[in-house]
Design brief:
mainly alpha, 2 domains, single chain, Sel1_AlgK, about 180 residues, TPR-like_helical_dom_sf, Sel1 repeat family protein, Sel1-like
Amino acid sequence: MNVDTLLANPSIHASGLYNLDEGDYAQTLATLAEWGDAKAQHNLAAMYLEGIDVPLDYAQAEHWHRLSAEQGYAPAQYDLGTLYLEGLGVEPDPAQAAAWFLLAARQGDLKACNNLGILHATGEGVEREMVQARAWFLLAARGGLIDALENLELSAEEMSPEELASAEALVARWEKGEGEKGEA
C-alpha cells in the first residue's frame, strides 16, 4: 500500500495510526519519507541539500536521495548522481555519478541524458566516447532540454560525418527498443 492510499483511507485518520503535522511541512515530509514514500524521500533530501526548513546537511541529503533512488525514482537517481559528481555528502566519484545518471536517463530524465553526454565527451567516470556523448545529447535535445543544444553543436565540431551518423543510428536503435539505452 502506498502513502497516497494510506492518506485517502478515512479509517487510518480515525485510528490515529499516523501523526502528520500539516503546519510543519518538514516534519510531515519526514514522516512520509520514513514510511518509504520515494517522492517524499526525494523532497526531504532536497530540503537538506538546500537547508530549507531544516539545517543544511549533505549527509542527510545523500541518505534520503539514496533511499528514494534505490526505489527507482528517477529525479532522486539524477540528484544522487549530482552529489557524486560534485562530492556533496560523499567522496567525488564520477563513475558512481555516471551509474546513477544512466538509471535516471533510461527512465527519460533529460538532465541525466545531458550529463551522461558530458561525461562521455570528457571521459570523466566513463570511457571517452563521442558517439555515445552525442547520442545522449540528441536524446536530451529532442526531449526539449535547451542546454543539450549547445552540447550538440560542440560535439559535432569534434566528430566525423561517419561518427555523427553512428550517433543518429544509435539513438534510432534505442528509440526502437533495440538494446538498452547506454549500450553501443
